[in-house]
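ok new one. same drill as before - C-alpha cells go in, u give me an amino acid for every spot. 349 of them this time. try not to just spam alanines like last time pls lmao
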C-alpha cells in the first residue's frame, strides 16, 4: 500500500514542486503540517519559500493520504482559521508535535487548554495584522456608504441606463462612527476615521483614556448609547463566550434606520439570522461583513440575496505585505519552540 501511495504525487502540493510521501518522510528539515491556501485557509504558494527555508511542508491533503507514516514527522502545525481542525484526534495522531502556530491574532478556533495538555504550545501573530485589518474595515465602510460595489457592477452592465436610485450613497465625512472593541485594531480604525472628520464613539470593557485622547474619541460605557447614536457601527471585538452574538435583534433595533453595521471581527459576534431580518425589514440601512458563519458563506445563503450587504470571505489580513510578515512571524515562533526557546508570541489562557 505504502509503495502505491509513494508513487502518487502529492495532490494540491504547491510547495517546492511535488514530492512523494517517502521523500517527505526523508526530509532533513523539520516537518510542519499546513493547509494549502483558500481565501483564509493556509500557506499561499508565494509565501511557501519563506517557510521552506527552515521546514518541509506536509500539506494536510498529503497527510491524509498516509497519516500513519507521516504523523511522526510533524513537529509543528500551521493553521489559518479552522480550515485545518486541530482537535483531540489530530493531537493524538502527532506524537512529536511541539507547537501549533496560528496565522492571525484571533485564536477562538483553537482549544488552547486541550492543545497545551499534550505539552504543545500555541502561538499567534499579533500586532502585524492590525493595519491591514483596520484598512479593510475602512474599505468596507466606504464601499458600503458610497455603493462602490454597485457602481462597479453598473459600469460593467449599464446598457446606457441611468444610475439607479439605489446607487445613492451616504457621507462618511462628518458621520458618527461607533467602534465596539478598542483593542489594537479598533484603535487603528479610530486613527483612520479621524482625518475623515468623523465623530468617534467607542465601547470597550475598559476605558482607554490614552487612546481616546489621541483620536478624540468618546467612551460609551453603555453599548446602547453607541448603537443609538452611530451612523456606522464597526465591530472589532475578539470572539469569546462573552461576545458571541453580542449584536442580536435587540441591538440591531437600537441602531438608526440609516445606519450601517460593519463586522471585521468574527462572524459569530453578530447573530446572522437577526441581521438578515433587520436588513430585510430595513431596521438598519446596510451591512458590510468581512466575517460570517460559516466561512465562506454557502452559495444561496439569505444574506447573499440582499441588496444592502457586502460580504467578503475573511480577507482582513489578505495583503502581500501583511501575509509575508505573518508567515515570517509564524516561522520565528516555530523555530523558537523547536530550538527549545520561549517563542515571542505564545498564547496563554
Ligand atoms: O485574527 C486575525 O488576525 C484575522 O482575522 C485573521 O484570522
Amino acid at each position: 500500500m505504502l509503495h502505491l501511495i509513494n508513487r502518487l504525487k502529492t495532490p494540491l502540493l504547491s510547495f517546492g514542486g511535488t514530492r512523494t510521501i517517502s521523500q517527505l518522510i526523508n526530509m532533513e528539515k523539520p516537518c510542519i503540517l499546513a493547509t494549502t491556501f483558500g481565501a483564509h485557509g493556509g500557506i499561499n504558494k508565494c509565501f511557501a519559500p519563506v517557510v521552506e527555508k527552515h521546514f518541509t511542508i506536509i500539506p494536510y491533503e498529503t497527510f491524509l493520504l498516509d497519516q500513519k507514516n507521516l504523523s511522526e514527522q510533524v513537529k509543528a502545525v500551521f493553521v489559518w482559521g479552522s480550515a485545518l481542525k486541530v482537535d483531540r484526534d489530530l493531537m493524538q495522531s502527532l506524537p512529536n508535535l511541539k507547537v501549533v502556530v496560528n496565522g492571525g491574532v484571533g485564536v477562538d478556533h483553537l482549544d488552547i487548554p486541550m492543545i497545551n495538555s499534550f505539552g504543545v504550545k500555541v502561538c499567534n501573530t499579533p500586532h502585524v495584522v492590525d493595519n491591514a485589518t483596520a484598512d479593510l474595515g475602512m474599505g468596507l465602510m466606504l464601499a458600503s456608504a458610497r455603493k462602490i460595489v454597485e457602481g462597479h457592477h453598473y459600469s460593467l452592465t449599464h446598457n446606457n441606463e441611468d444610475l439607479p436610485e439605489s446607487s445613492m450613497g451616504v457621507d462618511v465625512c462628518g458621520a458618527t462612527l461607533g467602534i465596539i472593541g478598542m483593542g489594537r485594531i479598533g484603535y487603528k480604525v479610530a486613527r483612520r476615521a479621524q482625518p475623515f472628520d468623523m465623530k468617534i464613539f467607542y465601547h470597550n470593557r475598559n476605558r482607554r483614556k490614552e487612546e481616546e485622547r489621541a483620536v478624540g474619541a468618546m467612551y460609551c460605557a453603555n453599548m446602547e448609547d453607541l448603537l443609538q447614536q452611530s451612523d456606522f457601527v464597526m465591530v472589532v471585538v475578539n470572539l469569546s463566550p462573552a461576545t458571541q452574538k453580542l449584536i442580536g435583534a435587540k441591538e440591531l433595533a437600537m441602531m438608526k434606520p440609516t445606519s450601517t453595521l460593519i463586522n471585521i471581527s468574527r462572524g459569530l459576534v453578530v447573530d446572522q439570522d437577526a441581521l438578515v431580518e433587520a436588513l430585510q425589514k430595513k431596521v438598519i440601512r446596510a451591512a458590510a461583513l468581512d466575517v460570517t458563519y460559516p466561512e465562506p458563506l454557502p452559495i444561496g445563503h439569505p444574506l447573499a440575496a440582499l441588496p444592502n450587504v457586502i460580504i467578503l470571505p475573511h480577507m482582513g489580513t489578505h495583503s502581500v505585505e501583511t501575509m509575508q510578515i505573518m508567515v515570517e512571524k509564524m516561522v520565528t515562533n516555530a523555530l523558537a519552540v523547536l530550538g527549545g526557546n520561549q517563542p515571542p508570541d505564545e498564547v496563554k489562557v
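The mean pLDDT is 90. and btw The longest strand covers residues 74-79.
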